[in-house]
Amino acid sequence: MPEYPTALGASSLDKITLLGxxxxxxxxxxxxxxELAFWLAIQRRPTPGETRVFEAVLAALAxxxxxxxxxxxxLTYLSAPDSVQGALAAGLLGGGSRFLGVxxxxxxxxxxxxxxxxGGPPTDEAGWDELxxxxxxxxxxxxxxxxGLGHHVHKEGDPRTPRLFHIAAEEELVGPHLSLFxxxxxxxxxxxxxxxxxxxxxxxxxxxxxxxxxxELLRAFALLARTAGLIGQLAEEIRTPVANDIFLSVDLxxxxxxxxxxxxxxxxxxx
Amino acid sequence: MPEYPTALGASSLDKITLLGxxxxxxxxxxxxxxELAFWLAIQRRPTPGETRVFEAVLAALAxxxxxxxxxxxxLTYLSAPDSVQGALAAGLLGGGSRFLGVxxxxxxxxxxxxxxxxGGPPTDEAGWDELxxxxxxxxxxxxxxxxGLGHHVHKEGDPRTPRLFHIAAEEELVGPHLSLFxxxxxxxxxxxxxxxxxxxxxxxxxxxxxxxxxxELLRAFALLARTAGLIGQLAEEIRTPVANDIFLSVDLxxxxxxxxxxxxxxxxxxx
Amino acid sequence: MPEYPTALGASSLDKITLLGxxxxxxxxxxxxxxELAFWLAIQRRPTPGETRVFEAVLAALAxxxxxxxxxxxxLTYLSAPDSVQGALAAGLLGGGSRFLGVxxxxxxxxxxxxxxxxGGPPTDEAGWDELxxxxxxxxxxxxxxxxGLGHHVHKEGDPRTPRLFHIAAEEELVGPHLSLFxxxxxxxxxxxxxxxxxxxxxxxxxxxxxxxxxxELLRAFALLARTAGLIGQLAEEIRTPVANDIFLSVDLxxxxxxxxxxxxxxxxxxx
Amino acid sequence: MPEYPTALGASSLDKITLLGxxxxxxxxxxxxxxELAFWLAIQRRPTPGETRVFEAVLAALAxxxxxxxxxxxxLTYLSAPDSVQGALAAGLLGGGSRFLGVxxxxxxxxxxxxxxxxGGPPTDEAGWDELxxxxxxxxxxxxxxxxGLGHHVHKEGDPRTPRLFHIAAEEELVGPHLSLFxxxxxxxxxxxxxxxxxxxxxxxxxxxxxxxxxxELLRAFALLARTAGLIGQLAEEIRTPVANDIFLSVDLxxxxxxxxxxxxxxxxxxx
Lengths: 271, 271, 271, 271
Hints:
Four copies of one chain form a homotetramer. By secondary structure, chain A is mainly α. The first copy, chain A, folds into two domains: 11-45, no CATH class; 58-245, CATH 1.10.230.10. Helices cover 58% and strands 6% of the residues of chain A. Chain A has 13 helices and five strands. Chain A has helices at 23-27, 33-42, 48-61, 68-79, 84-92, 101-115, 125-141, 160-170, 176-192, 200-210, 218-239, 243-251, 265-269, and strands at 4-6, 10-12, 15-18, 21-22, 254-256. In chain A, strands 2-3-4 form a three-stranded antiparallel β-sheet. In chain A, strand 2 and strand 3 form a beta hairpin. The termini of chain A are far apart. Mean pLDDT of chain A is 93; it is low at 264-271. The interface between A and B is large, with 97 and 96 residues. Strand 5 (254-256) of chain A pairs parallel with strand 1 of chain D, so a sheet runs across the interface. Chains A, B, C, D: Its EC number is 2.3.3.16. Chains A, B, C, D: It is an enzyme of class 2 (transferase). Chains A, B, C, D: Belongs to the citrate synthase family. Chains A, B, C, D: Keywords: Lyase, Transferase. Chains A, B, C, D: This is citrate synthase (unknown stereospecificity).
C-alpha cells in the first residue's frame, strides 16, 4: 500500500496543521496571504523583506486591463455564470508562453547565464556587465530572444522596473538575477544596436528567482497574482457588464468567406 | 463603436494605473497581496482590520491536504508538465458545489435569512436566536440542508471557527452574518435534535459576507486561497512526487467488468 | 485495498479491450466515431438509426460561428499557443447554463413533465397536447422559463428543428420527449399569447433524451460536438488569425473610469 | 472597424450555413461526426476512405482506462457535480506532452525527417530505410527520443499498429509519414541495439499527418477522441462511482512529514 508524504495540510479530530503549524492558532490572523503563498511554495517562512518584494511582484502582475485572459474570463462568465471556477480557470489558461511567460522565461534566462559564470557570480559592476554581454551575445548568436527587454506601450521605460529594483534594494534583496538583469539593461544597446526598456514582467522574474522560488513555478506566481486580478474583472463584469458587447462586436462583424481547403499545410508540404 | 469602461488596470506611455492608483509608486511595495485582492474585488481599499479578517479566511481555505483538487493538480502536472497553468486550472475546476461551495452557500443562506428580518437585524442575542430558529426551521421544513453545520473529521468542533470569531471580534468586524451564524450554532440542536459543529468553510462564508464582499463571488475567494495551496501542492510534487504512485494505485487495481448497458436510466424511465 | 471496476479500456500484453470488444480487430475501422461516443456513454452499441439521429444532433451543435466559446478558444490560443489543450478546455468552460445549457434544460423539462403523466405517456395528439398544456401552464405559474422556445436570430423558425424531427421520423425514433416537444410547439401560444419557434438546442435535447442518453450528460454531448467545432476554430485561427484584432478592438476602446466602491452589494444590503 | 472572416458557422433569419453548406438540409443526417470533425479542421470534405482512417485513429485514442486524465475527470465531477464542462475540461488539461503528446511528437518527427529528404520522398523500401536510418541516427546523436517507439504494457507489439497500417493500406492512404514510420520499425534495432514496438499513439500521429491534417493540431484530434472517452468515464462514474474511493485511498494514506525548506533549488543554486 503506497503512502503519500506531505508537509502541507493535515487534520485530526481537534487540530489542523499546515506546514507543521497549528493553522487556527498560528497561521490564521498571524500570517498574511502573500507570506503564506510564499511559505507554501518553499516550505520556509519568508522574512518581512522577502514578503514585501514578493507582494510587490504580485501587485505588478495582478491586472493589466483588458488582456486576452481578462476578456476570456468575462466571456466565459457570460456563457456559464453558474460556474465561477470555470470562468477563473479559463482566464488562467491564457497564462502561457506569450502573455504571462516572460516572467518565467526571464528567470530561466538569467539562471542559465549565471550557471555559466565560472568562479561564482561577479562581484562588481564590470563583472556583471561582462557576464551580461556574454549571455546576450550568445543568445543573439543562436537567434534567441532576450526575455524581459522591450514593451509595446512603455517604450521609454516601464515604471515597474525601477520601482522593483528600489524595493529590493531597500530590503537588501538584490541578488544575482536582479544584478544580471540590471547589467543587461546597461549593455544590451552594444549588442542590439538600440535601447530597449527592461520590462516589468522580466524584472518580476528576476526578483522571484532571487527570492529562491523554484524556476519551474515562476509562471505559477504570475498566475496567482492574476487570479486576484481576474476576480476583480469578474466583480466589475457583474456590476458593469461588457462581455456581451464584446461578443456582439465580433459576431456582428463576422464576414462569411468560402471554405479554404488546406493544401495540406505543413504536413503534406513534405509529401 | 462600443467602449469598455474599467477602473482596473490601464497604461499610458509612462504610467500604469490600477484602481485609480499609480501602480508603481503607490501599490507596489505599499499594498499587501490580500489587501490588493480585496481592493480589486470591491474597488475600495480595506482597513487593516478588514485585511486581517480577509487574510485569516484565505489562510483557513488555502490547503486541506490531499483533497480531490490537490490530487487533480498533481495528476495533471504528471500528464502535462509543460503546462503549469493547466495543472492549476484543473485543480480549480474542482472548486464547485461539493468541496468548496459551502463557503458560498453559507454566505447566501445567512444573507437570505437576514433579508427576512423585518425592521432590520436583531440587536440582542435573544433576537438573533429567534431569527436563527426561524431560518433553520424554515429550511428544514423545505428539506434544505443548513450549510456550515457538521464536519466529517472535526466532529467535536472545527478549530477554525472559534478562531475566526475571535479575530473578527478583535477587529470589531462581527456583523450580521457572523452573528446569525453564531446563533445557528446555539439553537440548531433544538431543531435537529443533535449538536453539530459550525464548520470552517461556513464561518469563512459568514465572515466574507460581513466584509461586504459580493455573494456571487464568495466561491472565488475560496478559489484564490486554493490557488496558493495548489502552488504548494505543485512545488511539493516537484520535490517529492506522488502522482505516479496515485495513478498506479488506481490503474493496477482496475477490475474489468462486462459492459452494463444503461436500461435507459432516468431518461427512458419516463418513456 | 479498493478495486476499481470498469467496462471501458483495459490492456494486457497483447490485447486492448474497450467495452468488452477487441479494440484493434473489432472497433478500429469498424465503428464510426459518433457510434463509438454513443456506445461509450451508454455501454450499448447503437443501431444505425440511433447513430444517424445522434450524429445529426452533434452536427447541429458543433459550431455556431463567433460564439463566446469560439472567441475564448481563439484568445487563449493567442496567449498560450504552447497549450492546445488549454485553448480547447477554455472554450469548453463556456458550455454552461446560458449558451450550451438549453439542450440539457430542455431534456430535463420534458422528462419531468413526462414523469407526471399518470398511466404512461399519451397515445394520441390530443393526449400530447393536454400534457404539454399542463406542463407549460405549471412552469409559467411558477415563473419558470420553458426551455427550447424562441431564438434571437431565427425568429420565424429554426431550420434545424423540422429537419431533426424529419430524421427521427425516418429512423422511427420519435419517442415521448420529441412528441411532447412537438406538442409544446403547438400549444404554447395559448399560454404565452405569442408564437415562438422551437429552437435547435431544444429539439436536440429532446432527441438525445429519446435516445435514452443520461439526462445528467446531455450537456456533455453538446460539449463533444463543440470540441470538433473548436478545433475548426483553432485551425481557422492558425490560417487566418483574428484573435489579436479582437483583443485590440477591446483594449484600444477601453475607457478608464474611477473606481466605484461597492456599496456592499447584495451582501451588505442585508446588514 | 475590424471584420472577422470565417468559413465556419453563420446564421441568417431562415438559414444556417456551416462550411458553406446548408446545415439543416445538407449536413444534419448526411454527414457523420468523424467526417464533420475532419471537414471542420481542414475545410475540405474527406473521402470515405479518409473518414475511415480518421475514425480508426479516434477509436484508438478514445479511452485507455484509468489514465490520469480519466481519474482527473472523475475526481473533478466528485467535487463539482454541477459543472460537467469543468470535469471534461479538467481531464483534457492532462492532454499534454507526456500522456497524449506522442501522437503530435511523432507526426512532427516524421514531418521534419521528410523535409530533409532531398529530391522528394523515397520511392522504394530501401530508400525509406535509408531515410529512417539517417533520421534515427541524427536524433540519437542529439540525445533526442524517437517518438512512437516502445510501450510500457505492449512490450511485444501494440495491436493497434498493424491494424492501422492495414486499414490505411485498404484505403490506399499509406503516405510518406506512415511509410517512414514503418521503416523506423524496421531499422531502429540497428541504431538502438534492441527492438521496440511501434506504438499506437505514434502510428496515429503518422496516419493523421498522412491525412494532411495540420501538425499544430495533431494533439487536438487526440483530445477530441478523448472527449468521447471522458464522457464514457463520467457516465460510468455516475452509474458505478469510484472517485470517492480513489480520493480516500490517497487521503487515508497520507503521511505527515516536516516541512522541507527548499535549499533554493535550481534558482539559488546559481547564486
